[in-house]
UniProtKB/TrEMBL annotation:
One Pfam family of this chain: SNARE
Originating organism: Cucurbitaria berberidis CBS 394.84
Entries under Gene3D superfamilies matching the protein: 1.20.5.110
Isomerase as UniProt keyword: no
Record's subcellular location: Endomembrane system; Membrane
Descriptive protein name: t-SNARE coiled-coil homology domain-containing protein
Amino acid sequence: MSTNPPQLFLLADHIKLSLLERQRAISLNLSPNTQDGQISRSLEQLRSGIESLESQVADTSDESIASQLPRLKSQLNDLTSQFDRASPNASSPTLTTPNNPSLSSDFAAAQKKPRQASKSVRFSDNPSTSTADAADEADRAALFPYRDDPSSDPDAAPNQDDLDNQQIHAYHSQVIRDQDDQLDQLGASIGRQRELSMQIGDELDGQVVLLDDVEEGVDRHTAQFRRARGRLDRFSRKARENWSLTVIVVLICVLLFLIIITK
């Protein structure tokens, strides 16, 4: 299968994104090992592509390819060293700079750190003015009653108008804890989905290898077919060139036959 520098630079960008995602998983205390097989195969594919380009340059001098080889080799060495480290250097210029500018947004998203949301509740134990009383009543009306299902019967919700600030704070603390538990469960579910997506990615990489083998076989048989077609074309051309000579020989034979008969 043919290989060219743009394809290898795109593969290098794919490896960079995988390494950034691996570093992000480490920062989130997730297991990054599921990506190691994919990254290792991609690095091996990049190395094989560079060797193929070197063979092409050795057979036929091509300045456009030869000028790209040092940059490809440098990125291969840098990415290999980043992969071999227990914790890749996420600030490495090679790792953070895409070869294709259109991937800049993907690289920026991969380097973005997860934000820690802060939660705070403001309340007053002793409101002293009528303005504060009015604001407190407005806030209470906006907060209560709370329903998970807005379409449910409002009369079924408990009356919480008599809650003081401490009870409101305790209630919201409990709601926040429940939400945190739900978010933890959601995070675990997302982690399982991520593991599943990584396994699907590994399977797709295996299918890509099989498709590459099939493509190589198709290219090989196509080359054989072209050679056979060339031989048939040469035979047909020679037959057309010898057609007039064949007609002359046949006419001579007919003439000789007629002379023999007439004697």
